[in-house]
Design brief:
It is a multi-pass membrane protein. The protein is mostly helical. It is built from 10 helices and no strands. The protein has one domain. The chain is 78% helix and 0% strand.
Length: 254
């Protein structure tokens, strides 16, 4: 019972961040599953993809109803990225759990650095045309998809800035579009992982329940949080967690 309640609470926190920022919460899921709930790193990547995918899908529907999504951009980015996530899932099984967490920490540091320095353009939602950005969306989505499958993350911490900076997607549409892409990429990643391992349903289901609830609340909060404050705060959290993971896992490789 204690583990179940803890999984619900932790899942709620992940979902809250995912719904509010269009990504980000998923990168916290794997460390929480491994170091707090005791999952094996490889099993945790599968659990994370399941949780993140369902949570993002529910939150994406909410954002679509609010008119804050570009379905075309989300389908291109998520569809191509989802296919490449299968490659990432296969690569995941070729490295040890310790090496996986060490690489994950380095990815978190890179994400924290990028988020702390990114500059977002002024919104011009009336000028955005998905068909003019299809190639950029597809290429970027494919690269992010490999990360999705390999690390068991939705990729939102990369997807949202990539959509804004590489494809000129206005921030008004970026959160909902990111959630749609995350759901598609995570779904493909799950397919790849389920063929390679098992899912710890006793942890996954309560974590998922909490995450979906948190995602719905976060979706309502998205319009209330100053983007710059949210981005800088999350970047700091990523950096601190990455340092801890480096300490726990990377000493053997130094």
């Amino acid at each position: 019972m204690h583990t179940t309640l803890l999984a619900i609470v932790l899942g709620g926190g992940v979902g809250l961040m995912l719904g509010a920022m269009g990504g980000g919460g998923s990168i916290l899921a794997v460390p929480l599953l491994v170091y707090v709930l005791g999952e094996d790193p490889h099993s945790a990547t599968t659990t994370s993809l399941l949780v993140v995918g369902w949570t993002a899908a529910v939150a994406a529907v909410q954002q679509l109803r609010m008119g804050r999504t570009s379905p075309c951009a989300g389908l291109i980015f998520g569809g191509i990225g989802g296919a490449s996530a299968l490659l990432g899932a296969w690569l995941n099984r070729l490295v040890s759990g310790q090496a996986l967490m060490c690489l994950f920490a380095l990815l978190m540091l890179a994400a924290a650095f990028g988020m702390s320095r990114k500059r977002l353009p002024v919104d011009k939602e009336n000028e955005f045309k998905c068909q003019d950005r299809a190639v950029r969306l597809g290429v970027t989505g494919g690269a992010v998809g490999v990360l999705t499958g390999f690390f068991g993350v939705g990729g939102g911490f990369v997807i949202l800035p990539a959509m804004v900076l590489a494809a000129d997607l206005p921030m008004k549409l970026a959160v909902g579009t990111s959630l749609l892409a995350i759901a598609l990429q995570a779904a493909w990643g799950v397919v790849g992982h389920l063929g390679l391992g098992t899912v710890a349903w006793g942890v996954t289901l309560p974590f998922l329940v909490g995450s979906i609830a948190g995602g719905l609340v976060g979706g309502r909060l998205a319009a209330l949080i100053p983007p710059r404050l949210a981005t800088r705060g999350f970047a700091l959290l990523l950096a601190l967690l990455a340092v801890y993971l480096l300490y726990r896992n990377c000493a053997a490789f130094i």
